[in-house]
Amino acid sequence: MFVNVFLLTISLVIVILFFWLINDRKYTSIKTVSESYDSWTNDKLLEALWGEHIHLGYYKNPSKNQDFRQAKIDFVHCLVKWSGLDKLPKGSRILDVGCGIGGSSRILALYYGFEVIGITISNEQVKRANDLTPNNANCSFKIMNALNLEFDDGSFDGVWSVEAGAHISDKYKFADEMLRVLRPGGVLAVADWNRRNYEHGKLGIVDHLLMKQLLNQWSHPEFSSIEDFRENLLNSTYCSGNVEIDDWTKFTIPSWNDSIIEGIRRPMLWIRLGPTSLIKGLREIPTILMMKWAFSKGLMKFGVFRARG
After folding, report:
1. How far apart are CA 240 and CA 261, in angstroms?
2. What is the pTM of this model?
3. Domains in the chain and their CATH numbers?
4. Backbone Cα Rg of the chain
5. C-alpha closest to that of 175 among 151, 133, 146, 206
């Protein structure tokens, strides 16, 4: 019996890895990213597993168990406080760049009283964000390219972006556009997945292959280091000259294990969504495990950035 189960497990792992390797989602253009997020939104797998927030969570005490979905909500409040966004008065106008299905936008609107506009390049994310947003939430959602924000200079009191930059090819233009639409004295709050600074040493063969897969599997053109993206912000024409950074890797890294364990905690989910979703879920496990390893090893870091317009 044990041998049969073992052989079945090994066979399943081989099939998943084979499917994973030959069916990557390599970035070729902005269309690659929009199609990936359209698909992830339509199958509702991420939402069913992780709730309204598809970003990582913040674990105040990483050594203790915390509720995965609550950690995601805690992350929003922690970044609001760390960035100084909470010092803005109610009614302040906030732009959420890469809003997903609107989880963070709704917290910013309902909890802090901000007027929020969320943008994404996924048409399906906009539809789902509108479906999930109550009428009393002062937020709206639009299709828009972060490299070409369709707003006048200084249009917003705050600009917010969480885990969007890794999908964007021109990191400097991304930084410059966010600061352009931020009013003088306004608050910029950014959090993102970042690679380590390659100036501290070249990658070995294994690390290079690992980073290549992390780019190709989830439609990332390139990761920026924390230091490089800080320089992008500082070099913007619209920067006031003060950009602060921090590394939240230790507070967010438990999210990777929980991203997988959540599927075990909710077995009825797979019955409701069906076998196709189960296969899709299993297909993501190798990338999630590689992400956890990369963050644990220091190849990847979770950077947070705050600046003023």
Report:
1. 43
2. 0.91
3. 2-308 (3.40.50.150)
4. 19
5. 146
